Structures are given as C-alpha cells and as structure tokens.
Amino acid sequence: MASKLVRHSHLRALSSSISINNHIHSPHFSNPNRAPLSFSYRLFSNASSSSSSTGGFQRSSSLKDLELAKFASIAETWWDSEGPFKPLHVMNPTRLAFIRSTLCRHFRKDPNSARPFEGLKIVDVGCGGGILSEPLARMGATVTGVDAVEKNIKIARIHADLDPVASTIEYCCTTAEKLVEEDRKFDAVIALELPKGTHEWSSFLTPEELVLILQRANITVREMAGFVYNPLTGRWSLSDDISVNFIAFGTKNCQ
Amino acid sequence: MFSTFLSLLSPDSLSLSHTTTSHFSPTMNGVIARKLYVNVSRLKVRHKPFCTDAATRVSGSNCGQPSPEHKETHDLSNNIQHYDIAIVGGGMVGMALACSLASMPLTKHLNVAIIDSNPALGSRPYFNKEDPPDPRVSTVTPATISFFKDVGAWQYVEQHRHAYFDKMQVWDYTGLGYTRYNAQDINKEVLGCVVENKVLHGSLLSCIENTDFQKTIYPSKLSSMTLPPSPSSLGMDSTSSRPPLSSQRHLAKLELSDGNSLYTKLVVGADGGKSCVRELAGFKTTGWNYSQNAIICTVEHTVENGCAWQRFLPAGPIALLPMGDNFSNIVWTMNPKESTNRKLMNEDEFVKDVNNALDYGYGPHPTSSLFGSGEMFSWPRAGVTLSANDCFEVPPKVVKLASERMVFPLSLRHASDYVSKHVVLIGDAAHTVHPLAGQGVNMGFGDAFALSRVIAEGIAVGSDIGEVTVLKKYEAERKPANIMMMGILDGFQKAYSVDFGPLNILRAAALHGAHFISPLKRSIISYASGEQKLPLFT
Fold first, then answer.
1. Pairwise CB contact (< 8 Å): B462 & A56
2. Could A159 and B107 be called an inter-chain contact, meaning their C-beta atoms sit closer than 8 Å?
3. Burial level of B536, CB count in 10 A (0-12/13-18/19+)?
C-alpha cells in the first residue's frame, strides 16, 4: 500500500492564506492571528442545512428517518474497526501519535496532559468519517472537519453525535479553497487524505517533492516520519524510513 | 520440561478473594457511598421498542435481584450519573486497577465508579494490626511488588505483617528427588513475599485515599447491564414521539441491586471467579473442576520460618509459606472427602497430620544422591547455581494451629475472550487456576496494570476507551501469557495426580535435573517470579 498521505493540491490552496501558527501559543489567547471567527455553516452551500451537528434529531417525516437509518448503517460500516476500512483504523493511532508529539512540542503543551490541545483550533481537511477529528476533539481541540463529499460529512455527523465530546466538532461539506475564501484561521491544519482507491503512481509525491511544494507555499517542513507496517504484528509504527509512507509536519514562515 | 518449575511455590488463595464480596446483603446503603443517586425514573415510561435485538438487556441469574419496576424504566438521563469507567468488583485486582489509573497523569482525571457490596471499602481503618494472621494470603512475585511500588502502594504493605523469602524447597513423597531454589541463583534478593490478602487490599485502598482520584463507591451488586445498540437502529422507530437522547447511545448502562443506575464508557469485570459481568456480557468459558479441595489455615512454629516449602503427596501438594513472626500459612490440596475430614478433626490431630505430611509421612526423605551425587548432571560444572549444593532440609515443625481451617474447591476456568465493546475482564473473572504455584493473583495484578497502561495509551491518542481496538491490545498482551501459565499449571497438576512407578521416577529425575541444570533453573525462577512473560530460554 504505497499511498501517500498528503494531497498536494489541497495543500497549496490552504497554505496561501490559512495561517499555521508558528510562534509560541500564548495562554492568554491574545494571539492576533486568531481573531474571533464569525462563521456559520450556512456560508457553505454544500452543507445540508437541515441537520445540526449536536443534539437530537427533530424529525417529523418518516422519509428522513429512513435516510437517517441508511446513513447510520453506512456510518457503522465505515467506523467498524474490523470492517472494510480496517487498514485506516489500524493506522490511525500511529498518525495521532505523530500529530500529538509534534503539536505538543510546537505549541509547548504538556505531553502528559489528557487534553493537551485545549484552546487550539484545528481543521481536518478531507476528514472522511471523522476518524482523525474525533480523537483530536477528545484531546481538547476545537475541531472543524471538512470534506468535499457530502456523504462523508453525513457519516461523520452521525457518528460524532454518539459522544458528547465529539458532537462539538463542526463538520462542513466544503473544500479547502472555500475555507481560504472565507478567510478562516486555524492554529493547525491537518491534511492527511488518502487517495481513494487509485493506483496512479505518477500522482504520488515523494518526500522531496512535498518539501519543495511546501517551501513554495512558505512552509518549512520541521519533522517527517515514516510509516512502517509490520505484517507479523499487524501494526503500524513510526520510523525513520520514509521511502514508502510518510507524514510531515511543517510550520508557516514568519512574514 | 517446564513442568518442573511448577514445583515453585504455592499458595495463593486466589479463589478465596471472591468470597469477600459475594455474601453480603444488598440492603446496605446510605452511609458508605460518597454520593448515592436514587433512580428518579421509577415512573413507568414506555420502553423504546428499538432496543429489541440491537440492545441486549440482560439480567443475570447469580447476580443481585433487580426490583421489578426497573425492568420497565426508561432513562431520563439527566439524573443518572455518568462515569468514564465502572469497575465491578473492588477486591485486590479491581483496586489495583483503580490505583494504577490514579497514579498516571493521563488517567488520573478519569471519573471512576467502583461497585462492590463489601463494607470494608467504606470503612477506615482498613485493617487492624493486632488481628491474628488471616489464613487468606497471597504470595506476590517480585514483578507484582514492583507494580505496587510504581503506584505507591507497597509502602503500606511494609507497615504491616509481610514476609519476604529467598529460599524454596520442593520435593515429593517418593523420596526420589528434591529441588532447592535460591534468589541468589538469579542475582536477586527475594523470590517473593507472602502477604495477607486483607493487607494487600487495605494497602491499595490506603494508597488511593491519598490521591484526589475521583472515585465513587457503590456498595451494591450489579443486577443488569445494557450495552449500547448499534447505530443502524436509529430512526427505525417512527412511532416514538421522543427521539432517543444522543449522549447515551455510546454508553453502557449498569443497574444495581439497590436501585441505582449509572452510565459508563467502559465496564471492567473484576468480580472474581463467578463473575457477573462475564455472565451478563455473554463471554464463554472453558474449564473444569479439579476433584480437589484446598484447606488453608495459619500455623505457628517455635522459630521463624524463612523458606517456602512444597511437598507433593499422592492426593496433592502441601505448601508451607512463611508469613512473618513465627507464623506460616498452609495450603493443602487433597480430595474432597479428606478435606472434609481434616476440617472437622480436632486441632491436635490436625497439627500431627500436617507435621506428618511435611516430614516422614507417605514416604522417605529424599537424599541428594539419586543418580550418584548428581554425577549424571555434573558436566555443566562451571556456573552451577548456589542452591545446587544445598542439602535437603526438613521444614520447621508446626506446634499450634493459629486460625480456623477454610476449605475451597479448586477449578480451572478461562474466558475465551477478555474483551468486547465496552467490556473487559481482569483477574479471576478472566481466569482461575490451581493454587499450586502461587500464580493466580499475580496474573490478576498483571492484568490490572496492563489494562491501565493500555487505557493510558488510548487516551494519549484521543481514543474512546470503550473501543474494542484499544481493549484488544490488553487482551493480546495478557491472554497468551495467562494461557501459557494456565497450561503449565494444569499440566503439572495432572502430572502430579498420578501415582505410578515409572512416572514417579521420571518426575523425580525432572526435579533433580531442575536442581542441577543451571540455565534451566534460572529460567524457571525468573519466569515464576514474573520477570519473564513466557518461559522461553533466552
């Protein structure tokens, strides 16, 4: 499975105006880059306006009930750790370990805290069913999950509603470019989308290419780690070998 | 080849720990719990039909009796307490888990409920120093001692009666062989420590009292458990006027025999060999009863006993363990009829019987020269263990019985799975073993500390702690080690229940070999003391 973890087109759009905070996060929240956001998901035309991301469903028509049931069952399959998306679920904790380690270091957060991302605004680009967004929310972050595919957002919302902590996640069916247009600001951007089922080797990035692309977008790559799969244990782990799968952490250069 | 190490040490009154929790009346309420929540939903609200097969609502047969109105109630969740973890069973292993969670930064903020009707959990002081030694003791391995030290509980054990030992002798009635083990063989100071169960338990309670860990004790028994329905059942019921409240859909609901209910992300079954959680969650078990009972009691000597002794008799082993202050603990395994006789016979007769069993009864003392002063094994001369030169010794004579005699049936039982969504088993709830190697509660402590670590690792990456993928890591770590240990213990029990000439000689030779072949012996001691997870020669 030689899939790369970052889609470079997304990244270019994002990096041009979403600021990745690269100075010390102040506990007093006086960071000028994070002006209060006057967003509401009505701005995003693709978002389904009838459902909310928190609380119960107030449905009166049975048609909506059926639709809900259908998506709930799709959500269950997507989220089934032994189901068709098993490889994603198996890989997830390893990615989160890398994210936790780099963000704690960068924002000088206590790595022993159960909620180290408290106070951080994070956007999960290409969130799918929310497999990264939910753990990030549990780690204390204020999370916005975006995905261009409406079905994914529906799945994500249904699953997130099961847990009061996850139900605070803001899911939007939109694209990174739209977020840029809205001038949304975040402390961190996570763009770890896997190309869906394609095996077009030419579109895969090498680590070197990614570094160059990010440099052009004014982002310096600070850390990179390889993902290695051990078929005997069935587990992924982080390593120095970035030849097959890798994950990168970068910060935006000061202007 | 591994069967010989089994001659390591016995008693751990593992199957005894559950007795402290199972016989208390469920009417205790009010004074002990920090907060008592009465289930406000005694109103008869229509039960949601979507729960039919998706949500399993189970009432256990050997669990506390639920009062009839609870079968119909629906939760108006606002008044029911929510917890991160509910530990069912506040015995040694359940409290070890709680202590471990309290001691780690990632888990010390968890909100935990402990369900156990034992009044000891709410009363201080947890034990009295003047009490005579209780016959319910456990032999803790150095690995367990180190876990206790990590969580800060061992200091309390050392303030009460406890007995480290560094020597062990194992032999049988045939007089054909014996083995002596010494901690110095593996460059350690102790082979283990014998501690009364109430001291272990009390130490864990004291330890947790000294933290600000948020725990709520429910002095009650579990009567039913409702596990969350699958999400695909949402919205199926279009006749309902009230939508199901979303926040309860991913939680397990526990109903207690005193009427309280609670929600939790994770249910831990630490409730002993007859686990209610295991039954309610539908875990299958395999196992069998040994046609043996164990008699346990405390005895007194005129001198201090510094060694752990175990002699295999035709009907089962007798073990004599040092407890400190001239006291020793006896665990004597025998067939049920004999155990009834021995429990009832007068004290003097019993003491004579014990001395007989430990000394000249049933057969002669072994001599060190079975195969000609160990010549057969003399080739690996270099690096021979210290204890290989030790001569056979007779255990110290018992002069007095110092406690009542208790009898327990012995069995082996193992749950086929330790985890399912929102539920995990630890300790005797997952596995019960023969006490002949003193491993039972040590396996349980190993489970508790492994589970707490797995939970901490899950929290570190933002997982939902009730998720099976997280819990399965605990199972993957503990099940193989536990099964291996159980297989060996069981194999050994079977090997020693046969009194047959050629087999006797083979066994004796194995014992003898274990005495002299150093790498084998070191590995055996290391495994039994908990240092190595599996008995591999590395």
1. no
2. no
3. exposed
